[in-house]
Design goal:
Layout: H1 2-7, H2 13-23, H3 27-34, H4 45-57, H5 61-74, H6 79-92, H7 95-102, H8 105-109, H9 113-125, H10 129-141, H11 147-159, H12 163-176, H13 184-189, H14 200-209, H15 215-230, H16 234-257, H17 263-269, E1 286-291, H18 298-306, E2 311-312, H19 319-328, H20 336-341, H21 347-358, E3 367-370, H22 379-385, E4 391-395, H23 398-406, H24 420-440, E5 445-449, H25 450-455, H26 457-468, H27 514-522
Parallel strand pairs: 1-3, 1-4, 2-3, 4-5
Helix pairs in contact: 2-3, 2-4, 3-4, 4-5, 4-6, 5-6, 6-7, 6-9, 9-10, 10-11, 11-12, 14-15, 15-16, 19-21, 21-22, 23-24, 24-27
Length: 529
Amino acid sequence: MAAAAATARASDPRWREAQMHLLRGHPDAARRALTGSPLEEPRGVLALLLEAQIAWREDRIRDAAAHALAAAEAGSDDPETLCAVAANLLEIGEVLAARACLEHPALAASRTPRVLMRLAGLRRRLEEHAEALALLDRARAAGHDTPALAFRRGEELMFNGRLDEAEAELAGSLARAPAYGRVAVPLVRLRRQTSDHNHLALIERSLRIVAQGSADHAAIEFARYKTFEDLGRYGEAWDALAHGNALMYARLRDEADHHNAGIERFLERCSPGILRPAAETAEGPQPIFIIGMPRSGSTLLERMLGNHSRVAMAGELPDAGSQLHWVADTRNTRADVFLARLPGVDYQEVGRRYLMQTQWRARGKAFFTDKHSPNWALAGVIHAALPRAPILNLVRDPMDTCFSNWRMFFGDASAYSYHLPALAKYCHDYRRALAHWHAVMPGAILDVSYAELVRQPEAALRKVFDFCGLDWEPGCADLARNGAAVSTPSAAQVRQSVHTRAFGEWRHYEQQLQPLREALNGHGLPVVD
């Protein structure tokens, strides 16, 4: 182990060559790149890590996890190698091992900006935003001062509620690197743009420089849309929004067209006979799942729940899907191989592994939230694995929800959101899935009305607390009480008082959005005037 620790370096050119081959889909060439090098020593960290990556891509999830854990056990004192091991562990769902890796003394002592930047990204993936910001501060103190650092630090400042500092950092980043258009999106989200205080000149400068047709170009258009809408220039706002979405859809068309293609087959297999709830043997803190369409109010509900003395906010956790992948030994929950294995899934094991990887997030409290919105597709699996865990489903008007998605720049995630027909189909799939879950496991999910949560928050929260087994505590609807970090697109918005401005915002563009309305009607989701 000592030899491996001494020679295994993720900065080694042979390791980088192996990674390049792996990205191109050539695992044998990746292995050959390490053959005969010190990096391939028996049980060497990087050799084990490469085998983990290959197994992951070949859909051998348990093998991938075993190799990644062995890489962590093999040991290394090289900070870049430790970062590579931790990143792989997080990808596979071995969160506890990844956290242990990140606590290595070599990382705590590192003053290398590249390492500190990578560590900040890993802490961000863990929803540890105070720690991520501290690492970025260390990188700057070490002399690293780049537009990329300013962008990432600006986002972390925003997540941590330091909005004025975030605005200065993000504006500085965009001024220094105007072609990096995606910086403009969080910059304009921070506050309402006014005629006296806006960044339109900076954004228009970027528009002239950015690579045409790129994701950065699309991001600039989304930023222009937000600015124009805030200024009441709705015609220009629509043109920018439509252009930004068209650019992203052109890039992601294939992914958008096939999004959730297998939802119907999956739901058909999820009968009460298949979804046999596990024995209720779980000990310790329990999750409260918050599901729903993106932009349906999940962050708002989580912040209110987080005001309760017995609830810790954990954010968006991928662990339910990760542990299902491990038990079924496949990554693709829509593919034939998963559907064939579904009857044999050990849901008690899914639940046990989920709790093992997540209960640390409760930090001494009885409950912790998990608001990973796409868990709506896995709600039946979640209930079978964790029958004691409350599941809260946010229900928002389809037109408001879909428009809120279409106006949001998600990068390359959520490809469906950039095309109105695909967006309407996604909304239909979500509603179809929830109807199925209500039918096969009645009483397991509480539908929470977004309208009621905003207009009558106390009444809505009383229902939520009762469903979750929480005693009533007054004042939980007061968002100003909650100073915890939040990393969603609404990070700045949810630090304001509850308001009703989000209702019917699509009506500024009622004529242009008629195709969306018709698509929703065609899916049996009529818009109520």
